[in-house]
Design a protein that fits this description.
438 residues, two-stranded antiparallel sheet, 13 helices, alpha/beta, Alkaline Phosphatase, subunit A
């Protein structure tokens, strides 16, 4: 069973605004802000498997077996259970469930550096450079958090496992109340504990409840003269704050020990397999957006040994997730996306005297896999040339991708928020859902 143990409170954590200040009951303010959004009609959720650093399209989902050796790489494509779709031989388990997801081979954007690419993919907008790393726009998940909040009361709206290291998950001008909740631990470890779900040192549930009673008694005078119903609203949000920390919904959702051991084995007994299993539990419980953030996909050198380690873990976890969602009847409710902020150069470099060859940065042709949440499986969107360098069919923009996610969640992508200058800015500037996926 997971221990909801003591741990440092992350700067970016959703609950840093509440749990660390529960003595003064700041979290109700967070929840009041969240309720300002209008819940979308769709009861859908998103799991983003974020391969930070950029996985190579040439080695995963858009292989070129007829290209010269320095392009095609180390592995060959294999057939899947969908006629005509072939993916890397390193993905034999995904090949058996290819009817449950589709592949976009023509995503592109205009930045070749990691910070700028991450900002574009997360927020839909440029603005960050290697000399100016400050986030300029809200992450898509932050917008989702503000507009719909969690799908079930007593849960955070956006959870990141293990944490936000290196990418732009922040809320920016939509409000600090919509920052993600960071798990901050490795779910594969026996001693795994979820930070930020504990009370401050010396605080107990009983003492917290006493403080709530004290606050209510001090509010009595206000209630006698208050006629607008505001105090009733304060009660509502205070109760939600209390439930988030003391209720059972969050604790049940984070309890990986409730899962059968064979299922945990199928996902993989590693940080990423168990994080995806945890993501399924959180989405099922009612968390609207779950991000599994795997840092380490920047293989300028030693591509082969690193991929021999990484790709089987991705294969097991992703295939298990799609099968698990289908078995639980959640495949139409939960959208799964597997991607990074860029791809790698189709032509491998030569390595060095000490390092094996690798691939460098490439943003002109990016592949990703996505399925569930109403997205049809077994489809290919877009195509690249015989060497995988450039898009030849159906270019897809990042804003098209964001519009697709908003469509799945039932959110108007042109919903506007005031930026720091007081100017209304819509969630996306342009873009339409990728129609072929529906």
């Amino acid at each position: 069973m997971v221990r909801l143990g003591v741990g440092g409170t992350s700067r970016r954590s959703f609950l840093r605004l509440g749990v660390s200040g529960l003595a003064s009951l700041n979290l109700p303010g967070v929840l009041r802000a969240r309720a300002a959004g209008s819940p979308a009609a769709k009861d859908t959720r998103v799991i983003l498997f974020w391969l930070q650093g950029g996985p190579s399209h040439m080695d995963l989902w858009d292989m070129k077996p007829e290209a010269p050796a320095e392009y095609r790489g180390f592995w060959r494509p294999i057939p899947t259970n969908v006629p005509g779709i072939r993916i890397s031989e390193m993905f034999p388990k995904q090949a058996k469930v290819a009817d449950k997801f589709s592949i976009v081979r023509s995503l592109h954007h205009g930045d070749t550096d990691h910070p700028g690419s991450q900002h574009i993919l997360m927020t839909g907008r440029a603005g960050v450079t290697v000399v100016d790393l400050v986030q300029k726009s809200p992450a898509l998940a932050a917008t989702v958090s503000r507009v719909v909040g969690p799908r079930r009361r007593g849960l955070p709206a956006h959870v990141v496992s293990p944490g936000v290291q290196g990418s732009y998950f922040g809320a920016s001008y939509v409000g600090r109340a919509y920052e993600p909740f960071e798990i901050g631990g490795d779910p594969a470890r026996k001693e795994f504990s979820v930070r930020n779900l504990t009370l401050p040192g010396g605080m107990t549930v009983e003492r917290l409840d006493d403080r709530r009673r004290l606050r209510r008694s001090l509010d009595t005078m206000c209630r006698e003269v208050e006629t607008s119903g505001m105090m009733d609203a304060v009660d509502q949000f205070e109760q939600q704050a209390f439930e988030l920390v003391t209720g059972s919904a969050v604790r049940r959702a984070f309890d990986l020990g409730a899962e059968a051991e064979p299922l945990r084995d199928r996902y993989g007994r590693n940080a990423w397999g168990q994080s995806l299993l945890l993501a399924r539990r959180l989405a099922e419980a009612g968390v609207t957006f779950v991000t599994v953030n795997w840092v380490g996909w920047d293989q300028h050198a030693n591509l082969k040994p690193v991929m021999l380690d990484y790709l089987p873990k991705v294969d097991a976890a992703v295939s298990a997730l799609f099968e698990d969602l289908a078995a639980r009847g959640l495949d139409e409710k939960v959208l799964v996306i597997v991607m990074g902020e860029m791809s790698r150069t189709p032509r491998m470099n030569n390595g060095s005297a000490t390092d094996q060859p690798g691939r460098d940065h490439w943003n002109d042709a990016i592949s990703l896999a996505l399925g569930g949440g109403g997205v049809k499986g077994g489809r290919i969107v877009g195509a690249t040339d015989p060497r995988g360098e450039y898009i030849t069919e159906r270019p897809v923009t990042v804003q098209d991708l964001h519009a697709t996610i908003y469509h799945v969640l039932g959110i108007d992508p042109y919903t506007s928020f005031l930026n720091n200058a007081g100017r209304p800015v819509s969630a996306i500037d342009d873009g339409t859902p990728i129609r072929e996926l529906f």
